[in-house]
Amino acid sequence: MIERLEELEEEALQQVEEAASVKELEAVRVKYLGKKGPITEVLRGMGKLSAEERPKVGQKANEVREAIQARLEERTKGLEEKALEEKLSSESIDVTLPGRPIKKGARHPLTAVVEEVEDIFIGMGFKVTEGPEVETDYYNFEKLNLPKDHPARDMQDSFYITPDLLLRTQTSPVQARTMEKHEGKGPVKIVCPGKVYRRDDDDATHSHQFMQIEGLYVDKDVKMSDLKGVLETFVKKYFGPDRSIRLRPSFFPFTEPSVEVDVSCGLCQGQGCRVCKHSGWIEVLGAGMVHPRVLEMSGFDPEEYSGFAFGMGVERFALLRYGIDDIRHFYTNDLRFLEQFKRS
Fold first, then answer.
1. Is residue 256 annotated as involved in ligand binding?
2. Cα 28 to chain center, whole Å?
3. pTM of the entire structure?
4. How far is it, in rounded angstroms, from Cα 224 to Cα 257?
5. I want to staple 146 with a disulfide (CB 3.0 to 4.6 A). Which of 75, 141, 162, 313 is the partner?
6. What sequence ranges are listed for the domain Aminoacyl-transfer RNA synthetases class-II family profile (predicted)?
7. pLDDT means over runs of 10, the chain (344 residues)
């Protein structure tokens, strides 16, 4: 048996040297040192040996195992290092090649407008508040003095998900939710930016999705003159100190009285041109005093509290600011358009 073990050692070591890969070395290990290998078979036959031969054969078997295992580990390490060197050589990087430039992005024009408007109103003491885009019919309409059978609902064709859930048609629900949280105690002074949705045909001036910024101020002794002062301050800060506003009577279910707010045309200085349709004025937002019924439904005593609200379309302000003629440019993700708004 000792001679057989010596033969197996010589065969195994020779095959280890001839192996060209780690995979081939593993095959040699399994062949000679595995449970079904010849060395294991020799050890199984030791029961037939005499008591004197058994220790000698066992010792020789262990020596052969250790010799084969040691050489396997040595060759495996060498082949792994060689494979790594070849891989590094094939994947080498030429550090002299010019690098790829990293393009700088830019704020989307609508984002820029929202942030600028927010900053102006924060400077006047307003807080920025947000709410869900998927809204309940109750907060989107009923809490704003628009019960289910109110004819004014025909003014807004909505995206309903269920009979009681819809994509909000305005950011006014945020005002209703905020007033409700105050539990009838003022002041409430917020602006609410966000996306709104209405069923509309997309064209140069309309979109089924657009952005609004609405404002609300509720406190004791709030007057229409306060509304005019806030809007006049905002317009002069956003459009320039030489611009002025005018208020025209209008109707909104949640404000009474209600007004449309126009700003003097900056292109013709109020003299009349193509942009302002030769009127000298451009309509920019709607506003009014909060309807007493809206205050009451949100927990405020209309005899003690009053307030004003206003709402503006972000896209319209962006169109006026940047001289853009098609609202669809904001949503097509055309890099040629967006790259024009990179900061210098």
1. yes
2. 56
3. 0.67
4. 9
5. 141
6. 111-340
7. 75 82 82 75 70 74 81 86 82 80 84 94 96 94 86 71 91 94 92 91 82 96 95 94 92 93 82 80 93 94 96 90 86 86 66
